[in-house]
Amino acid sequence: xFSTPAIAYEDNHLLVAxxxxxxxxxxxxxxxxxxxxxxxxxxxxxxxxxxNVYLGLVHRMDRPVGGLLCFARTSKAAARLSAQLRDNxxxxxxxxxxxxxxPDNFTLRDFxxxxxxxxxxxxxxxxxxxxxxxxxxxxxVVRMDGKSLVVVRLETGRAxxxxxxxxxxxxxxxxxxxxxxxxxxQIALWGMRLSLRHPITDQSMVFIAPPPDSGAWxxxxxxxxxxxxxxPDIPPTA
Length: 238
Prior knowledge:
- 16% of the residues lie in helices and 34% in strands.
- By secondary structure, the protein is α+β, with helices and mostly antiparallel strands.
- It has a single domain (6-233), classed as Pseudouridine synthase.
- Strands 1, 2, 3, 4, 5, 6, 7, 8, 9, 10 and 11 form an eleven-stranded mixed sheet that branches.
- Strand 1 and strand 2 form a beta hairpin.
- The radius of gyration is 18 Å and the shape is globular.
């Protein structure tokens, strides 16, 4: 049973909260609990709001993945945050543990096609002119015991993008039951850093929430604690 997500920031225009792993970002046909509904209920109860509560979903996160998400409290904020996302002003940065020895710095560009029936995504050759282009930039922080701790900055936001692209490059994410390999465990992919400009004041804002110290993350605790220093070295989006 999921409770109200932890709130990292909240005002009349913007809300930033932490999504738990295995919680839907928004409702789907399963009828399972979702973050958007939980936050709407939180706002309704906290401010004793009558009727429906407006909360705009700016970006999404795969169900198994945890980390930071931002939401708009007004339609004006939603439009401005969506524009930031489109223009790569709103940046989503993830940390993950991959199998194999990933390169020091790398950029992945693929075309992805989603099968809605199976809820899976696959890479296709660009000459087929199918799917949507997916781009990410990444940096390997450390390699240890056949695994790599990698930080990823998304330039595009496609379904299952990080998971599919890293798997296709030969570095599947630990615990990814759909695109990875290995024993069953919580997926080692986490939305750790979110940077944006406030939709009304235009103030630069950065939010950081590290993953838990358990599971695949435990071996990399020291490196994760120092991640804030290495983020500026990730190749910028262009």
